[in-house]
Structure formats: C-alpha cells, structure tokens
Amino acid sequence: MPKRTDIKSILVIGSGPIVIGQAAEFDYAGTQACIALKEEGYRVILVNSNPATIMTDAEIADAVYIEPITLEFVSKIIRKERPDALLPTLGGQTGLNMAVELANSGVLEECGVKILGTKLSAIEQAEDRDLFRTLMNELGEPVPDSDIIHSLEEAHDFVERVGYPVIVRPAFTLGGTGGGICENEEDLVEIVTGGLKSSPVHQCLLEKSIAGFKEIEYEVMRDSNDNAIVVCNMENFDPVGIHTGDSIVVAPSQTLSDREYQMLRNTSLKIIRALKIEGGCNVQLALDPDSFNYFVIEVNPRVSRSSALASKATGYPIAKLAAKIAVGLTLDEMMNPVTGKTYASFEPALDYVVTKIPRWPFDKFESANRRLGTQMKATGEVMAIGRTFEESILKAIRSLEAGLFHLGLNETISDSLIEKRIRKAGDERLFYIGEALRSGISIETIHEWSQIDLFFLHKLNKIVVYEKTIQKHQYDEEIGRKAKQMGFSDAALASLWNESEKSVYQWRKEKGIVPVYKMVDTCAAEFESETPYFYGTYEDENESVVTSRKSVVVLGSGPIRIGQGVEFDYATVHSVWAIKEAGYEAIIINNNPETVSTDFSISDKLYFEPLTIEDVMHIIDLEKPMGVIVQFGGQTAINLAGQLVEHGVTILGTTLEDLDRAENRDKFEQALRTLEIPQPNGKTATSIEQAVSIAERIGYPVLVRPSYVLGGRAMEIVYQQAELLYYMENAVKINPEHPVLIDRYLTGKEIEVDAISDGKDVVIPGIMEHIERAGVHSGDSIAVYPPQNLTQQIKDQIVEYTARLAKGLNIIGLLNIQYVVSNNEVYVIEVNPRSSRTVPFLSKITNVPMANLATKVILGNSLESLGYQSGLVPEKSGVYVKVPVFSFAKLRRVDITLGPEMKSTGEVMGKDSTLEKALYKGLLASGIKIKDHGSVLLTVADKDKQEVLQLARRFHNCGYRLIATSGTASVLKESRIPVQVVEKIGEAGKDLLDVIRNGEAQLVINTLTKGKRPERDGFRIRRESVENGIPCLTSLDTAEAILRVIESMTFSAEAMGNADHGSEVVYS
Amino acid sequence: MKRQLILEDGTIFIGEAFGSDSEKTGEVVFNTGMTGYQEILSDPSYCGQIVTLTYPLVGNYGINRDDFESINPAISGFVVKEAADFPSNWRSGMSLDEFFKGKNIPGISGIDTRKLTRIIRHYGTLKGAICSIDKNAAEVLQQLKATVLPTDQVKRVSAKTAYPSPGRGKRVVLVDFGMKHGILRELNDRDCDVIVVPYNVTAREILSLNPDGIMLSNGPGNPKDVGEAIEMIRDIQGKVPMFGICLGHQLFALANGADTEKMKFGHRGSNHPVKDLKSGKIALTSQNHGYTVQAASVGRTNLEVTHIALNDGTVEGLRHKQFPAFTVQYHPEASPGPVDANYLFDEFLTMIETAKTEGEVTCQNVQI
After folding, report:
1. HSE-up of A508 (CA within 13 Å, CB side)?
2. Is B360 one of the annotated active-site residues of the chain?
3. Binding of Mg(2+) 4: at which residues (chain A) (predicted)?
C-alpha cells in the first residue's frame, strides 16, 4: 500500500530524560523514525525535553521543540504547529502516556490530529491490565492467575485465593516502577502500598508468580495489510522473576525446540494482529521448562528497549520500518535496508549468538539494594556477538567495564555467600555462578538454586573447566586458539599463565591467533549484503574488507551509566559525521545496543566489539587507520589511550602526554603553577597517614576523591578527621598506584566552560553557571546559560584562563573546565581534556557544532579556516537551564543527598525568556510538579538554619504552609514565621514520616545529617519522600531556585504595613 | 577426533568428528533456520545431501521422540559450527552425536559454516565429501569430481507399499515422494482417511481407492527424474481434487507442460516470504527446494501462478485454470518453520467439499 497522502506533517514525541527504564534506545528509535519520515517527504515536528540526544538536533526534524513533555506544553506545540498526525509509539512509555493524555484532554480532536501506528484503544488494551486480560481470554491465550487491585484489602483477598508468592505490577509505570515479588505478608504490605502510589491510576496487578519459567520475548511487526513478522526472539538467561531490563538476554532463543518457538511465535503474531498495531510490538512470554504450557506476561505496543536490542542483534532497523508502516507503507513493498536486495517482509536469520548484559549503577550506589526483581535497576546495557555462547557472554562481560574480564570475581567467597547470591539474584549472580562452578558446586545444585536453564549452566561450566586446561598449557598454540574461540580475554589468559596481558597479545599475534570479522547481515549469508556492520570471532574467513581510503577510528563510550550518559554518544556520532564530511572513512567501535552510534548507517564501518585494549587493537591491526579519536567516548575511551600509545597507535587530537597532564593530579598542579592559574589548595595522598596530615595542613572541610574518576565516583566532602578516616577505610583503596586527592573545599559559585582549541585559537561557545554551590557534582547541578550572576570582569577572567589552559595544556580538540568563583576569585577545580556532558546542551543553544568542529580540528583544520575566532561566542538571547533527572524511585536504600558524587541519570533543558520561566520548564520537565500553594516540610542541619530562615519566610509569603521538626521550627518561631511542628521519627503521635506518607507536604527540604548510614533520620526522610513521589531537595540552592519559580508564578498575600518581612518577594 | 569436509571447488574444512565414522559424499546445501534441526535432518527431501546449518549452535535442545519427519533420516552428512554435547530440553532424549551414531550418519563440527555458506552462495550448490582426516585430500577431491550424484532419491525414500492412516473424514490418497510426516499429521488432524501410496502409483490404482482428494507430497531431487509421477498426474488431474507440495508442485507443473530448472543454491530455511498474488498478503514459509518451476514456462500452460517468492520472484504456487488442483513450492505443514500457510490444507478440504457438492468431478462418476 502506498504511503498516506492525507497527512503532511507529523508530530513525534520523544521519551524525555534518561531514567532507569528509559535510556538511549529511544534516541536511537526516535532518530531513525524522524529520518525515515523525512525521507518519505513529511514535515516532522519533534518534541523532547532531553537536549543530550541526536534526535533533538536541528537536522533530524523540521521543527525541534526542546520543551517539557507535559500536556500543557505539548498542547501548545500542537496548537501552534497544527500537525496532521501524531506518532506516539517511539517515545517509550513517556510518549505513549503523553499521547493518551493528549487524546483524553480533547486537544487532538480539537486540532484534527490523527494518531498513527497504534490506535489509542490498542494502547489501552495492552497497558490496562483488565482490558489486556479480557483480550487474552478472547484470544484463548493463557495469562497467569491475577487480579487488578486498588487497595491493600483487595490484595489480601487475592493472596487468600491463590497463595504466595505473588508478583505486584503497578499499571502505567516505567520499567516496572514500584513492583516486586511478595513471598509473605510483610512484602505484600510494603510493595502493594508503594505500587499503588507509583501507578498514576492507583492500580496494581497482582499475579500468581510463575518465577522459574523460561522468559522469552518476541519482537514482532505488523503493517496495515495485516502482514506480520517476527524480527527476533530472545531468551532470558534469568528465568521469570527478574525484569527483562535487568536480565541477561540471549538472541535467538537457545533452548526452545522448533515446536516451542513456533507456538510462541503464533501467539505473538495473534496478539499483534488482535491489537491491530501498525508498527512494532514486544511480547513477553513465560514458558514452562517442563511442558508446552506457557503464559503471556505482557505486551508493549511500541518500540522498546528490547526492540533496540533486537535491531542491533539482527541488523533489522525496527524503528525505521515501524515509522514507515505508520504512514501506510507495507512490509512487502519496503526493501530490507541491510541487503538492499530483499524485502522487509521476512524474518532475520542469525548465524551468531548475541548476549546482552545490563549495566547497573551499584558501583556508585554502594548502599543500594542490589537484589533484582520485577523493578528494573539497570541504567544501561552492553551487547556482544560471538559464534558460540561462551564467546558471546565473555565478550559481553568484558564490555561492561566493571573491572572484570572473565567469569569470576577475583576474590575468595564463602560457600554460604555463594548460595545466597545465586538463590537471590543480584547484579553479580553470573559471577557468583562462575565462582560456584570453580569451587566444585554441581550444575544441578546451581540450577536448583537459580532455575537457570541447564544449557546455560553447562556452557558456563565449560568455560570454568577449560581454565584448568589452559593453566596447564602455557603458551600452547592449540589450547590458546581454542581458548580464544571460547571468548577468553587476554587478561584472563594472562592471569591463568601469570603473564602480562601484553605478552599474551604479542604471542598471539606471532602465532596468528587473531580474530576475523563477520558481517551482521540479517540473512545468515544467504544473500549478498553490504552492511558495514561487523563483529569479531576466531574463525577462518574475514569479511571486513579494508578499503584504500584513509580511515579514522572513533571509540564509543560503552554502556550508559551514571556519569557517562547519552551525551557521549551524541558527541561520538557527531565526530563520525565530521570525519565523513572531511572525506575520511569513519570507523566506530562500540558495544552499546541502545545508541545511535551503533546504528550501522551512521559510520562507514561499525565494529560491535568490547572496548578493551585487545579488542580495539585487533581492529586497528586490521584497519591500520591514520589514528584513533578518544575525546568523544567519555572516560571509557580516554582510559584506553595510554595502552593504545604503548601499542604504537596514534592518538589524534590532544596527545596522551597532555591528556595525562590534565588528569594526573601532580602534573596538573605543576602545569597550573606554570600557567599561573589558581586552584584550591590540595595534595595527593598515597597512604591514610599522608591523607590525614594533608587535610590537617589545608584545613577542613576537604574534598576527597580517587584520581582518574568517572562522574565523581567515590568523591566526598569531609568535615573532620573521623569522617576522613571512615572514607579512607571504606570508600577507596589507597596505595601508591591508587592515590587519593585531597582538596580544600571552597564554598562558591561553580562555573563550567566547554571550549575547542586548535592550539592557536580557543573558541568558547558559552559559560554556564551552576545553581547549586560548589560541592554538588556538576552533573547533578542545575546549569544556567548564560550566567546570571557573573560580572564582566569575572567572565573575562574565565575566558582568559580557559584560553591559557587550552593552549598551556596543548589541547587539540575539546576541553571542559570547572571553575569555582569564591570571594571574587576564580579557581580551577578540574579540566577534562575531552567532550563533556554539556557539549550537546551548549551546541544546541549556541549553534556551534562543537563535536564537529573539534573533530575537524583534530583532523588538522584550524578554527580560523572553519570560520571561528578565539574567545567567547556572543551570548544568545533567552535563558537556558539544564536540570538533572534522577532515578531514585527505582533504587531502594540509595541516599539522594546531592554531593560531589554524581547521582543523576539524565537531564532536561528548559528555555525561555527569563530565568524563572526557564527554570519552571526545566523543573517541570524533570518531573517536579510546582504548585503555587501547599506545604513545605523543613528539616535542616544546624549549619543551614539561618539560611533556611530566609527561604522559609519567602515560602510563607507565597502562601505555603511550613511544617518542621522542633529544632528547625524553633528557629522559625523566633523570627515570627508561623510553622506547624511535627514529631521526629519514632516519637509518639504523628511523626514527619506520616506527614510525608499522607501526602501532607508538597515539597521536602532536607539537609539533615550527613553520612551514609541508612538508620539516620535524614536518610529515612529523604527515602520516604522519594518513595512517595514528593520532591525532596537537599541543597538550599535548588530550593531557592524553586522558590523563585513559585514567586514568579504567584502574587503575594501581604497584609498592609508589614513590608519588612515581605521584602524578598518578587511580584510578577 | 578430527575429520574433514572437502568440497569440489577444492576447499577443505577441518573439524571435529561426531556421529558415525562412515564417509559420505553428497550435494552440500545450507539451511538458515535457527530452530528445527531435528525436522530438517529427518526431512526426506534432503536425501543424499550433506546439510549445513547457518545457525552455529545445533543440538541445544537435543533429539526427542516426537519431532521426526521420517523414521530414518536420508541425509548423507551434517555440518555444524557446534554440536551441543549437553542438550537441555524437557523432551530431549539424546544428543546429536548419539543420534547420528545410531543412524550411521557422519557429522562434522567446529566448521566456519558461514564461510561454507558463502562458498555455496557464490559457487552454487556443490558436491562435498565428509571423510577422515587421514584421507589424502587430493585423491578425495578427484573422486569427488568424478562422482555422479544419484537420481533415484525418490525411489529410495518413498513408501514401498501402500498403507492406511485411517480417519472418519475425507479420503485422501497421499502420494509419497519422500513425504514429511507433517503432511500426514495435518491431514489426520483434519480427520482425513489417508492412504499413503508409493511414488510410482498409477492413476488407475489411485482411483480404485475412491479418493475424495489427492495429495502430492514433497520429495528429494530433480522432478524430471520422476517420470512415472508426471504421467500419473496428467491422467488423474480433473478427476479428483489435487493439492501438491514442493516436489509435488514441480511434478504438477511438468505434467501440465511447464518446465523446471535447477536453482543456484535453492531455498532452504524457515523465513521465506511468499506473496499471495490474489490477496497481496505475505506468508512466511518453510522451504526446502533446489529446483523451481520456470516462471516463463507457465504462460503456455493451463496453469496460473498464484504465489511468488517475494525476494527472487520465483514461482511458489500454481493453480489449474480448469481443474480443482493447486500446488505450492513451500511447506504449509511447516515442521520446522512458521505455520502461516497452514490454511492451505483447509483450502484443500474446502476444494474437495466444493467439488463434491458441485458434483463435477467425484469418483463415482468417473469411468475407470
């Protein structure tokens, strides 16, 4: 069927900020879809609040709105743009929910906007548990015994009927927020209460648990002519019970016979047909490991994380084709873009095994509950491709960048702990299984503990068993080759042989034990394909043909994690495009299936490989590029630079020496002294004793952190010696190889600058000012462009320092600098000689294509020849704020207090004509609902009590009620500010947790006590707020920002003749 | 133990032995299905062929009692990247290795099967030999080049005598050219009273069984090698409603004056899109054929093309313009593969029903 001609313009809704459950996969899907729709000649209007995405680039859509994805703002865009149609299925759950809300509000009907792809009724049928169950019953498809409940009483009734264990799934939530498995009464009360709160419709599904069944997913597509196909099926390594986003997943299924495969395929196709979806859909099924019995678990009537994985696993671009189907094209008239010769209406055949392992944030959140269940906790994932399962999973393990290169934990673990960690799945279960096998625990026992299919356990056992063979045959060619075929890393071989990784690598090269590259072609080599999409494996035939063109390798940034998000993929993609523009062949190496950079149509060649030295070197050995660009792949790529240079590889742009000069504390200090740029007093300590004496010398409070850090990992401000000792003993390993930096903590304004230098000129697209004072990680601060509180003199000083640093450190390419302005003095806190989190934000505001320019500079162009001159680019009009977004609701037991260690998962942008308006939008887009009246609960530390007084008065003047515990309340009362006193936790009567639970406060301001021990009251208050969905601010600066917004929204209610107390009010 | 696979183009693959130690020669073909190896290796249409699977892990769910498409596999050899030594599935009874040992079929694993597939794609289907590592490759190659592949595969795999598979419904005579059990199963599922007859049955013999319908099965090799059947079809079409699958489809074409030809490397897999020219709909089908009906040759016959392969446009379905007879190149019985085309069996029964009520061509009024 030809495409629709009754529509000309289409609104696409993005998925907003990166949060747990909704990561870069929607940037990939959205970007593909927008390009596909433009290709078909439609005018594409895009709304997404996340500036760190490729999809919000001006070239991707005809009109790009970086605005909050809320009814208010999307309606405004619809009324302004008058699109003919809306495509809601590409923006994840956010996009779908927004579409439903828009339809319910009547704005779509009012403006005559048609919904493409999936009818709203189908969305509701798939999402609303009751309607879904009815549909499944009509289709004769089995669903586990379940009931929709709206209260705890109803939950009890259900359990009485079916018994424990039961699974709780709240309706309409992301990544299963608020869900879980209940084994007993206590679990039931906790999880059901939380689940009802997190569901926007206060509805949960209670389901008889089928934990232990095989979890199988099908990615299916259907067109308007009712043609339906399966793109890929996937089998979860972890049986039912763990959210699929937190499961290790393999594609295709491994343990299903054809009858089982086809049975579940039929069900999946039956469902997509019944829902009449025009586009992609994900069906999750549970299959009894001992019979043909199965259940349908859930259906996602949209592109999803799984569809991104399926696209990368097969090469079949689901989102692109889903977008074209949505405008009427059918599968049989579209070409398969991979082969270019066959049609999209076919089912990809894989001739390799794909493994996905999630990346969890527990390295940053040590206190978090690491147990996995129905609520997703991973921030990202890696994918690896191999010709055997062993190769595939071992490649995935070393892609994780978790410091592990093999199936083990490198520590001695007691048997009882092994059993515990395998029975109750956590993020490290895979590694505990490795250790269990190594300590002789039988496969059957592990199966009994974990219910993981024996197939997988046998495979893991083969790896462990082969270790012994390897160990006995040092540098044996045949054994070495077989080990590499099984996916053993050089690091693993080196440790088994007590050799260095480098000598293993060199030995292999001599012996010719090197991988070949095979193509991902959707058709298992049946048809000739020209897709430049490769993976490495140890076999005979190499298919990656090296061209005669000069090439450049760009290293990607690996899995999305806190501190290294989608913004690095953004920069990577732009670098690749710039390389292509400059006439070179652009080769990318990356392992993250969610991203745009791993879309094979972006680069000239995509190698889907781990970002470890051996895997990168293999590609370089084959491709012999001019050099490697490491500036855009975050710390992942930077960390490889040293080893690459050791292997004789040219790093393009800033040299290794200069990279090191910015990152190595002592060299950096020396450079700053030479350049005469001040920095806070500080020293490097290599022992605890040294740390104590340094801290004493420079004076508390001090900022402590390990050198070479990612997103401020393990960074803390300590106020006294006891805290310092606690930190040294618990948070870091300190020794001469792992020094710890100790800096004087300066209170002041934090300023961030990104710049591009070619060695001669230094272009500064913009200066950003942070709302939160120094001490809060820059990634967790609200950043404002242009700065609102800097004098011209300070700005000039910053521009001058930036240029001096860029030139002094011999930066060629990008650099990011953080300054603190304290008592009108500018100090440098840190310099990152690479692309930063703020590059997309600034690029979009200033129209300076930073990653592109930097790449061209790296390739040898001068900024002058590219039309840029030294200095600060003239400030744009308007105010732009970048607001961080956190995923605390999904991570139990994590303290949400902002500090030097980064905790946010994503960001949004708010832009408008004034700071208040921009903040309003930014905060709203980040999920904070700002009400013009309500109650604010104050519990602050003694040191903050005077400061909070001013804020309290302003809240009072806006009409907010104040609630506080006795300490804070007495300070307020002394200043004649009315306040309601509540009891502290644990005291008789209604305590402040009750206030939070009952929803009596709309905002919580808490700076109470530091320390990470959960038993502290402050921690409990903060967690209680998160779990009840109430914004909890731990920085008075953020509170002040919100207050400004509230003040700008409201008129004051001030009695006559009382002006002294109302003087701070902003009238608007 | 090492073993080698030698191709007639001179390529030598060295791998690990599994299955029996026998040495076999045959045409090397690849199948792209990711599941269904048990059905594939027992599909009689592969008679005499060495089959490689493009999916690298084979045998993961073992060999079970139920999923055979014939009692004895007719393949000459099996080539895989990895043959699972620890199969895992509730129905698994034995490993691939155990099974092949019992059936005296050699297997070879540890092969870069993607390379092998690419060779077949470039070269076309080619002859190969699986033999011990000790064999002199040059000699084997010479023998291989001189080897003439058999032409009597249908005779080898067809039933020797007729037998019934009783039911209470329509009587269908199923001509066994190397029938997959799936076809019989589909008919039995529809309560048909099936009589399976050997490939060289005559029209007269069939008619004497008073059938309501005739089913032409799949089978191995070149349709032109089965002259008897062509004659039988010519004699019987129009007298009894007929449905043909795969080789049956090709024989039907030949019987009606169309021509068939050998394909470069055939269609073997579970993901072949077929377009129904009337409805415009696509079915994903299971296929296994090395020969095809020449599209151009259909024009001068009483046949019309009803289905085509979406990817290469080859003929996938035919219907007789006058008689109640239709055939497809693919496998509506699936096993292995998608069951999208399963409805064709229902159409066959509807055709029988229609023919009966219209009274045009029932057995009762046909003079034998």
Report:
1. 28
2. no
3. 830, 832
pLDDT recorded at residue A1013: 46
Domain end position, chosen among A836, A857, A876: A876
Find the CB nearest B35 among A258, A291, A523. A258
Give the range of the structural domain holding residue A574, as residue numbers without chain letter. 517-652
Q: Are A1021 and A996 in contact (CB under 8 A)?
A: yes
- Tell me, what amino acid is at A581? E
Q: What does the pLDDT look like over A247-304, one tens digit per residue?
A: 999 999 999 999 999 999 999 999 999 999 999 999 999 999 999 999 999 999 999 9
pLDDT in tens, A55-68: 999 999 999 999 99
Q: Which fold has domain B2-149?
A: Glucose Oxidase; domain 1 (3.50.30)
Closest chain B residue by Cα to residue A452: B88
Asked if A483 and A526 sit in the same domain, the reply is no
Determine the pLDDT at residue A156.
Answer: 93
Confidence band for A890, pLDDT divided at 50, 70 and 90: confident
CA distance A1020 to B282: 58
Of the candidates A291, A350, A387, the beta carbon closest to that of B34 is on: A350
Return the pLDDT at A291.
96
Is B95 in the A-facing interface, judged by CB distances under 8 Å? no
In the prediction, which pLDDT does A1062 show? 40
Same domain, residue pair A943 and A969: yes
Instruction: Tell me how long chain B is.
Output: 368
| pLDDT bracket for residue A711 (50, 70, 90) | low
Give the ipTM. Answer: 0.97
Burial annotation B74-106 (CB, 10 A radius, 16+ → b, else e):
bbbbbbbbbbbebbbbebbebbbbbbbbeeebb
B266 is in an annotated binding site: no
CATH 3.40.50.880, chain B: domain bounds: 154-365
How would DSSP label each residue in A600-658?
Answer: TTTSSEEEE---SHHHHHHHHHHH--SEEE-SSSHHHHHHHHHHHHHTTPPEESS-HHH
Q: Tell me what pLDDT residue B365 has.
A: 42
pLDDT attached to residue A726: 85
Which positions ≥6 away from B188 have C-beta within 8 Å?
B165, B167, B194
A236 annotated to bind ligand: no
- What is the rounded average pLDDT of the residues A981-1005? 85
* pTM score: 0.94
Above 60 in pLDDT, residue B362?
no
A377-400 average pLDDT score: 97
Rounded (10°) angle between helices A305-314 and A318-326: 110
Does A26 reside within a domain? no
**What whole-number distance in Å separates Cα of residue A65 and Cα of residue A45?**
8
Supply the CATH number for residue A1009's domain.
Answer: 3.40.50.1380
Shared domain check, A864 and A954? no
The CA dihedral of A1047, A1053, A1056, A1058, to the nearest 10 degrees, is -50
B166's CB contacts (< 8 A; 6+ apart) are B193, B194
Kindly state the average pLDDT of the residues A518-523.
96
Q: What's the helix, strand, coil split of chain A in %, to 5?
A: 40, 20, 40
Residue A649 has pLDDT above 80, yes or no: yes
- The fold of B154-365 is Rossmann fold (3.40.50)
Phi, psi of A716 (to 5 degrees): -150, 155
Annotation marks residue B122 as catalytic: no
The tokens of A242 are what?
A: 């763990």
* Residue ending a domain, choose from A154, A177, A208: A208
Could you tell me if A353 lies within 8 Å of chain B, comparing CB atoms?
yes
β-bridge mates for residue A586, sequence order? A552
Do A313 and A454 lie in one domain? The reply is no
Q: What does the DSSP 8-state code read for residue B363?
A: G
Q: Is B261 a catalytic residue?
A: no
Which residues, in sequence order, are CB contacts of A72 under 8 Å at separation 6+?
none
Grade residue A14 by pLDDT with cuts at 50, 70 and 90. very high
